[in-house]
């Protein structure tokens, strides 16, 4: 047996390893590269050298159509950043993606019909196509006698809806090529959508969003520098374009992308490794109803409703299928075509905001305004608007009505043109409404009469209850200025007993500062909430009358609705509409339930509370200071919309009154403004302070009264202010929001909250200003001053006061002090 020389064996192993690694390197490099006449079929892919991106065939959502595209590799959900054949998908067919000898990329079906091609210039050298780690797919040529590589075509020159680092959005001044983003048609269809983002060729340093319907730039976009997004505009002799890098520190790794969404919003996403998902850190517009023609023609947009769009009276969706899929851009169409003539008339649509009128007639009368519209066959609607100082102007719209928004803060009406037959039909329908209402009213009275008779026979006399009711209704404070009694239903004690199952413990919803609250059911299953005031409660008859009187006068979607009251001996009860989700504090301070409130819901709650407060301070016929705003007094309905409750401490301001003082300071520790807690002074700015605390609690999930920054000896608002000043404001945010939050919106909300809790009442904004700041995309906010630091001092002073200690409820400290002059 011959033995091989050890050196020969080592050399053989060396050759074997060399062949293996050369073969592995060849295969690995081939995975991101195509050569002429090489094809990719439906189950094959290219993967960039760093495994960051993949190119291949894919289907989107529930669609069976097949596309060639590029997407991120190794993410839980497929995120497509570029699509080749977005207008010509493969339908029920097997596709082939080929690099031709001439350097053209071609997508063809099984019949060899070309669906898409790059149509690039002819090439004669060595051609290759490669998918780069940047997400760019390039076709390049190396000349036979020149080692210089020439790029024949690249996907970054033909963006879809996504902008990545290394891409350009702008215009090539030499060739005229325009690089822009175009939205998908919808989430399942990457075909060209309704919106485009790019440079205005008439103003080369400005970037706009174009709606497809107008073809004109309508929204100027200024993208701010973000934590992982550093944009810059580049101007050369050959091109003007926008580009961005994802990080200034290239040693750090992150992923970001700017997307022109099918909703019309431009959104900046960043990838969070902790949550393994994309999160929006910036968007413009910030809400969908701010997008031009978001609901198409003849449709009203309301961001607080689902669906957000509804057709105007006399109209129906142009495409029911798209409407059901959430694509409202095709809008609505008339049920009956206009006849154009004096037989047409107008239907009023209340509380809407619509811009860009076609004609303005200045100080024309209301009748002249209507006649002007009626005389033009192109006129679709008119409005007669109070423009200030009791001056009215006529606005007329021609053609399709778009960009209509529901706005309850406005009292103006839009008069929409409809056919006379439609109006007559509506009139006939409305004629039945009073008849139906009378029948329902009479039936209800008979039913209540029988029920009351049954209760009398069951329990005996209700005389005590009715006499107490007569006393309270005859009291001067329960009369309007015109000396007409307020219409508030009174319910007997026995009726409430039956409704609450004799105030069963299982019906108890919670315990407030003034007593327990019970769930009840009216006949027919209508839910109610009964606030049963404890006999030892500090809310006496004066506060009780105050609450009944105030809520009876107030009607707003963000205020709780009072259904009635009950007085029985020493018993006093208020009956409200039932809020199935109870109070806000039961969510934001609960580790489990807080996760049910993502950032979008929390921001909606903040805005809803502000709208309710604006109504109290400004828009109602009375100016009302609540004086006891806190999270437990914010109730949530079945849609998680907030409603302000508990008006026992509220005060009415008359005329031009802006401030008052009291010897009796009432409220809840942590929510009271310093000037009110220490000096008894209260105003609309006192409520603003309480609202600011609520804002910070909603954002942080922390309870103000129980929070203390021991390291820096700071109160809750002081802690928030310190984080904001140090540039770490997001550290205040509830950790459960990291996956869903819009960080710029969170920071803006913290900023506004800190403005609300400034120590000097004069420095705090009004609620109207708060709403403007929250809704604005470009407003520069003032820097907040140090917040009130009285909380700990005032508590100690209260405890040592000769006036006596504060009283405590089960849930929070409630302060009620009788102060001497």
From TrEMBL:
Keyword Ion transport: no
GO MF terms, alphabetically ordered: ATP binding; protein serine/threonine kinase activity
CDD domains referenced in this protein's UniProt entry, alphabetically: B_lectin, PAN_AP_plant, STKc_IRAK
Record's keyword terms, sorted: ATP-binding, Cell membrane, Disulfide bond, Glycoprotein, Kinase, Membrane, Nucleotide-binding, Serine/threonine-protein kinase, Signal, Transferase, Transmembrane, Transmembrane helix
SMART domains in UniProt: B_lectin, PAN_AP, S_TKc
InterPro entries: Bulb-type_lectin_dom (IPR001480), Bulb-type_lectin_dom_sf (IPR036426), Kinase-like_dom_sf (IPR011009), Pan_app (IPR003609), Prot_kinase_dom (IPR000719), S-locus_recpt_kinase_C (IPR021820), S_locus_glycoprot_dom (IPR000858), Ser-Thr/Tyr_kinase_cat_dom (IPR001245)
Record membrane topology: Single-pass type I membrane protein
Domain (Bulb-type lectin) ranges: 31-152
Residue span, Protein kinase domain: 503-781
A Gene Ontology BP annotation from the UniProt entry: recognition of pollen
Signal peptide: 1-29
GO CC, alphabetical: plasma membrane
Enzyme class, broadest EC rank: transferase
Protein localization: Cell membrane
One Pfam family named in its UniProt record: S_locus_glycop
Domain Apple residue range list: 340-419
EC number(s) stated in the UniProt entry for this protein: 2.7.11.1
Membrane-traversing stretches: 432-456
Source species, domain of life: Eukaryota
Record field: catalytic activity: L-threonyl-[protein] + ATP = O-phospho-L-threonyl-[protein] + ADP + H(+); L-seryl-[protein] + ATP = O-phospho-L-seryl-[protein] + ADP + H(+)
Family: Belongs to the protein kinase superfamily. Ser/Thr protein kinase family.
Protein name (record): Receptor-like serine/threonine-protein kinase
Organism: Protea cynaroides
The organism's taxonomic lineage, starting at the top: Eukaryota, Viridiplantae, Streptophyta, Embryophyta, Tracheophyta
């Amino acid at each position: 047996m011959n033995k091989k020389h050890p050196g020969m064996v080592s050399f053989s192993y060396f050759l074997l390893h060399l062949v293996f690694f050369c073969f592995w390197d060849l295969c690995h490099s081939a995975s991101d590269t195509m050569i002429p006449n090489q094809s990719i079929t439906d189950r094959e892919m290219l993967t960039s050298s760093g495994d960051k991106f993949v190119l291949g065939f894919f289907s989107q959502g529930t669609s069976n159509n097949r596309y060639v595209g590029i997407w991120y590799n190794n993410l839980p959900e497929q995120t497509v950043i570029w699509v080749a054949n977005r207008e010509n998908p493969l339908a029920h067919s097997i596709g082939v993606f080929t690099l031709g000898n001439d350097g053209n990329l071609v997508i063809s079906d099984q019949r060899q019909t070309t669906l898409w091609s790059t149509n690039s210039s002819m090439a004669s050298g060595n051609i290759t196509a490669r998918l780069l780690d940047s997400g760019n797919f390039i076709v390049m040529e190396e000349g036979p006698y020149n080692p210089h590589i020439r790029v024949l075509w690249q996907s970054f020159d033909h963006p879809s809806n996504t902008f990545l680092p290394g891409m350009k959005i702008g215009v090539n001044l030499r060739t005229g090529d325009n690089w822009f983003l175009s939205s998908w048609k919808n989430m399942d269809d990457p075909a060209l959508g309704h919106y485009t983002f790019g440079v205005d060729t008439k103003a080369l340093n400005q970037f706009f969003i174009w709606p497809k319907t107008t073809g004109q730039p309508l929204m100027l976009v200024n993208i701010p520098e973000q934590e992982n997004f550093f944009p810059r505009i580049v101007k050369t002799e050959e091109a003007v374009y926008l580009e961005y890098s994802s990080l200034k520190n290239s040693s750090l790794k992150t992923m970001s992308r700017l997307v022109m969404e099918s909703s019309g919003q431009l959104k900046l996403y960043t990838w969070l490794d902790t949550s393994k998902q994309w999160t929006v850190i910036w968007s413009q517009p910030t809400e969908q109803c701010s997008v031009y023609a978001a609901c198409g023609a003849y449709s009203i947009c309301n961001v607080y409703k689902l669906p957000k769009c509804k057709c105007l009276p006399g109209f129906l969706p142009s495409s029911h299928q798209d409407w059901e899929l959430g694509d409202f851009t095709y809008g609505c169409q008339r049920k009956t075509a206009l006849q154009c003539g004096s037989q047409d008339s107008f239907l009023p649509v209340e509380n809407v905001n619509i811009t860009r009128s076609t004609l303005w007639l200045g100080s024309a009368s209301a009748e002249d305004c209507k006649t002007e519209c009626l005389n033009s066959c192109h006129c679709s609607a008119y409005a007669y608007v109070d423009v200030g100082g009791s001056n009215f102007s006529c606005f007329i719209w021609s053609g399709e009505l778009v960009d209509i928004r529901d706005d309850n803060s406005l009292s103006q009406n839009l008069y929409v043109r409809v056919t006379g037959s439609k109006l007559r039909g509506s009139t006939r329908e409305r004629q039945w409404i009073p008849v139906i209402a009378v029948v329902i009213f009479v039936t209800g009275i008979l039913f209540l009469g029988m029920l009351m008779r049954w209760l009398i026979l069951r329990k005996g006399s209700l005389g005590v209850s009715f006499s107490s009711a007569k006393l309270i209704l005859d009291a001067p404070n329960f009369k309007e200025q015109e000396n007409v009694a307020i219409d508030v239903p009174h319910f007997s004690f026995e009726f409430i007993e039956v409704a609450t199952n004799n105030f069963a413990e299982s019906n108890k919803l919670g315990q407030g500062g003034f007593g327990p609250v019970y769930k009840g059911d009216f006949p027919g299953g209508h839910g109610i909430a009964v606030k049963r005031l404890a006999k030892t409660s500090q809310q006496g008859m004066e506060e009780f009358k105050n609450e009944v009187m105030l809520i009876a006068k107030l009607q707003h979607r963000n205020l709780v609705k009072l259904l009635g009251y009950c007085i029985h001996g020493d018993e006093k009860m208020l009956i409200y509409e039932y809020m199935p989700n109870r109070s806000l504090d039961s969510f934001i301070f609960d580790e489990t339930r807080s996760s049910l409130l993502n950032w979008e819901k929390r921001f909606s709650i903040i805005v809803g509370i502000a709208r309710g407060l604006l109504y109290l301070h400004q828009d109602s016929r009375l100016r009302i200071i609540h004086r006891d705003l806190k999270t437990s007094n914010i109730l949530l309905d079945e849609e998680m919309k907030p409603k302000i409750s508990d008006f026992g401490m509220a005060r009415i301001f008359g005329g031009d009154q802006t401030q008052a003082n009291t010897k009796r300071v009432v409220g809840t520790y942590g929510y009271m403004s310093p000037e009110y807690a220490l000096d008894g002074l209260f105003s609309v700015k006192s409520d603003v302070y309480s609202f600011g605390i609520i804002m910070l609690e909603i954002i942080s999930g922390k309870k103000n009264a129980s929070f203390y920054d021991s390291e820096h000896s700071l109160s809750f608002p002081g802690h928030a202010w310190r984080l904001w000043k140090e540039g770490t404001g997001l550290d205040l945010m509830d950790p459960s929001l990291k996956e869903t939050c819009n960080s710029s919106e969170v920071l803006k909300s913290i900023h506004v909250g800190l403005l609300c809790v400034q120590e000097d009442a004069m420095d705090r904004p009004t609620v109207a200003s708060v709403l403007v700041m929250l809704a604005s995309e470009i407003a520069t906010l003032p820097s907040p001053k140090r917040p009130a630091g009285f909380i700990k001092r005032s508590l100690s002073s209260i405890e040592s006061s000769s006036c006596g200690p504060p009283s405590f409820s089960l849930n929070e400290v409630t302060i009620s002090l009788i102060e001497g002059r």
